[in-house]
Design brief:
271 residues, alpha+beta, 14 strands, 4-stranded antiparallel sheet
Length: 271
Amino acid sequence: MLLREVEYARPGSVDEAIRLLVSNEGARALAGGQTLVNVMKARAASPDVLVDLNRLDDLRAISVSGETLQLGAMATYTQIMDSSEVEVSRPILAEVAAQIADVQVRNRGTIGGNVCSNDPTNHLPPLLVAVGASMTIRSEAGERTVPAEEFFLGVYMTVVGEGELLTSVSVPAAANAADGFASVTIGRDGTCIANAAASLAGGSPRIALGCVDAVPVLLTPNGTDEESIRKAVADAALDPPSDVHAPADYRRHLAEICAVRAVAQAAERGP
Ligand SMILES: Cc1cc2nc3c(=O)[nH]c(=O)nc-3n(C[C@H](O)[C@H](O)[C@H](O)COP(=O)(O)OP(=O)(O)OC[C@H]3O[C@@H](n4cnc5c(N)ncnc54)[C@H](O)[C@@H]3O)c2cc1C
C-alpha cells in the first residue's frame, strides 16, 4: 500500500531534530524505518512530518569510555555486529543483533528504533534490561538518563515523550561478561515467540523475559541452578498473550525454557 502524503525533514544536528519534533505536532523521528514505514503503510501510524535522523552522525558512534560502552541511538545492528568496541566490552550485543531478522533489516534497523518501538517480541528490550543498560534522552529542557527497566512503559510505549529523542544507550563494559540469550522463533531468524536474556556479570543473576508481557519482565532468582530459575519464572505469575503462534500456557512454558537456557549459556561464559 502506498504511504499517505507526509512531510519530510532531514535535520543536520540533534538540536535541529528536537526543534522540528517540538514545533510540528504529529512529527515522528525516522531511524531505520524498518518498523515505522511498515506501520505507516498499514495505516496503523500516520505522522504528519517525518524527522529523518540519518544525517546525525553523532548518533551513530560506538565508543568505550572508562567502564561504559556507549552506543549512539542510530547505531545499526550491522554496525554493532562489526564493532570492535562491542566485541571487547559486551559481545552479547553483537551476538543478539546478528539474530535479528535478515540482512536488510540489520543494515537499516537501529538500536534506538528497536527500543523506542518497544514491540514486545523485539530482541533488544529484554537484553538491555538484563545487562543493566541505561538510556539517555534529550529534549529542549536538557538531558536525562533512565535505567532500561524503567524505560519501557507498554506495548509500543516508552518514556520518550513528544519532542524528545533517545540519543544513546550505555551498557556497563565487561569483557568476559557472563551473558546469555535464548529464544524460540517463528522459523529461522523469525519473530520471537518467547525469549530471555540473562546476565550474571554483576554477581546476582538478572534475567529479563520477552514476549510474555507488554514490557520485559525482570527476574532476580536466588541462584543460577535450574530449580531456582524455574521457580523465579513460576513466581512471576506471567499472563502472556495467546495468539496463532502460541497459547498462553505454551508461552509460559517457553519462557521457563528460554530462561534456563539463557542462564546456562551465561554460566558457561562466566569468568
Ligand atoms: C521483516 C522484519 C522482521 C523483523 N524482525 C525482528 C526481530 O526478529 N527482532 C527484532 O528485534 N526486531 C525485528 N524487526 C524490527 C526491526 O528490528 C526494526 O529495525 C526496529 O524495531 C525499529 O528500528 P528502526 O531503526 O528501523 O526504527 P524506525 O522504524 O525508524 O522507528 C521505530 C519507532 O521508534 C521511534 N524512534 C526511532 N529512533 C528514535 C530515537 N532516537 N528517539 C526517539 N524515537 C525514535 C520512531 O519514531 C518510531 O516510532 C523486524 C523488522 C522487519 C521489517
